[in-house]
Every structure is written in C-alpha cells, then in structure tokens.
Please model this.
Amino acid sequence: MQKKIIIFIAVFLFFLNIICWREVFVLSENKLLKVDFLDVGQGDSVFIQTPENHQILIDGGPDSSLLRKLSVVMPFWDRTFDLVVLSHPESDHMQGLLEALQSYKADYILWSGVKKVNSPEYDKWISILDKQQKMGAKILIAQAGQEIKAGNVLIETLYPFESLEGKEMKKTSNDSCVVAKLIYGKDSFLFVGDISSVAEKELADSKENIKSEVLKVAHHGSKYSTSDLFLENVRPEVAVISVGAKNTYGHPTLEVLQRLEKSGIKMFRTDKDGDIMFVSDGNKIIKFQ
Model:
C-alpha cells in the first residue's frame, strides 16, 4: 500500500512539472511577461518571469510560505534565480528570502546595503550574502540611475537617490527601500517596498519617471503611504496591496482604500484575491487570477 502511495505521488509531481513547463514554453513562445504577486501573508513577495525565461524574485515575505509558492511557479529541479531584490531588511520582506536562499542560488542580488543593528535576521542576511557571493553571485548596491536588462525587460532603480551602503538604521528602514520600475514595451510595474509619504514626495519631486500602469501599494496599505501627490504622479490603472488576512495593523487602512477609489484605480488584495498574476505582451497588461 505504501509503495502505491509513493508511486502515485511521483506520477503526480511528474505531471505537475509538465504542466509548469508547458506554461513556461507558452509564455516564451508568445513573448509574454508574467508578474506574480504572491500571497505570503502580512508581507511582500513578487515572482517575475520574463519572455526569455529570466526569473526574478522581489522580497520573500515574513515566513517560509515563499518556499511553497516557489514549488508551484518553478520546476522542482530549478534552483536558480537570475536576480533577487530585497527592498529593505525588515522581517516581513526578508524572512522568506533567508529561507529560500539556503536552497536556491542567485546570479545577482540587489539591495540597499543599509546596516540594521540588533537584528539577528539582518546578521543572517549578511551571512547568506557572503555564501551566495562565494557561489558566484554578484551583489549590487541600489542607487537611482541603475539599469538591469533581462532580455527585452528593463529594471530601473529609482530610489534611493544615493548609495546607503553601511548606513546604520536603528529603527525602521522603510525609507531606505529600493524602489524599482519594471518596463516591458509600453507596460510598466512600480515596486515601492514600504516607503512612506516622505520618500513618495521625494520621488514625485524628482526627475524620475515614476508613471506606471501597475503600482505595488507601499507598506501593505498603511495610511502613512500612498499619498494623493504620489498617486497623481504615478497615475496607475491598477494597484496591488500585499497584505495578510489577519494583521494587527489595520492594513489596508480605510484612508488608502478611499484614495485609490477616488483616483479611479482598480484594486487587488492578496488577503482577498490570493496570488495575483499579470501577463503583458508589451502592449497590454492582462490580469489573471
């Protein structure tokens, strides 16, 4: 009986991976970009697959949920990311990466380089960076003006405006977040981590082109982010809120939901919609549940 169960599981996993690879083949054939906002609870994680099958991971959520998600979006034998981005070293964005990067290898890792004191998780992150570097990973310190090309997809770093490498963060590192814009043809996605309205204003007042079709709402819908000024400059058609169904912060706040509604922006939430996938052919973005 036990042998039959093992055989059944093996066959099931085999067909599951055939389905997964069939999807990869179709995406590549049709030159489509796929952006998955993963439901990892009260945290952020985004998995991106380019038309040329580059695999990019932005943040990892607050726990090991990411590993389960990766087992669905990636074949089980694939253990390499082309690029990993850590927006900032806070546990709700970093913990899942700590788990994943013990089993997966990254070719490039982009982060702010800030120093967080009295944080065992941060110390573990530095240790993992060292191990990844020894395996060949290139560590990039984020600064506005950087461009990373993944085939026909472009990733622009818009913030921070200057290198923060080694700068000490005693409390929150939210306004040290890496803000990046993903561009494919006429379509674009803006990833802003947990920046507050202070950093939003700096971006709005800068010469950076922050206009984007899809906005990853900052800080899980905190009332201290997603200001009217920022929305006026980004002018998104769609906003995605990565938030846990059970959280003690009241996220997303009524203030943010009202601002988005007032601006006529279509909203999706991981706490209500689960994983949220967008597909782009470079001319039009389509949302798939």
